Amino acid sequence: MKEFLLDSPLPRDFFSYLGHFGEVEALPNIGNGFYKFEKTDWFSIKGFIGDTTVEVRFKKEVMDLTVDFAYFLFSSYRDGLMDLSVLKGREAGVAGRVNRHLYGK
To answer: Whole-angstrom Cα distance, residue 20 to residue 38?
Structure first.
């Protein structure tokens, strides 16, 4: 598990953005809003809206393949509409390496 320290408080839209890359679960009645993101076989992200830290748990077997993508997700986020094509291309490349490593595919 790693704790990521963010430059600014976590906005609610960040988890909507993450929804393009995995499954998001909202628990709005906990604190100011608690969210969980799961990218199966890669990592999960948990955090509270308005907080400046999140918890990231990597799948140990592929952490060396997925950690850069996690950093890229955080550094690429911007308020408003975003062009996700570069992120989606990078995701596809990492997915191929993860699948080969875990499943030989």
So the answer is: 11
Burial class of residue 72 (count of CB atoms within 10 Å of its CB; 0-12, 13-18, 19+): middle
At 35 the pLDDT is: 96
Residue 74's domain comprises 2-103
DSSP-derived pairing of the beta strands 43-48 and 34-39: antiparallel
Rounded distance between C-alpha atoms, residue 2 and residue 46, angstroms: 11
Distance CA 12, CA 102 (A): 33
Residues 40-83 have pLDDT tens digits of: 999 999 999 999 999 999 999 999 999 999 999 999 998 888 89
Question: Is the dihedral angle over the CA atoms 105, 68, 38, 1 positive or is it negative?
Answer: positive
Predicted TM-score (pTM) of this structure: 0.92
How many independent structural domains does the chain possess?
1
Residue 87 tokens read as 């992120």
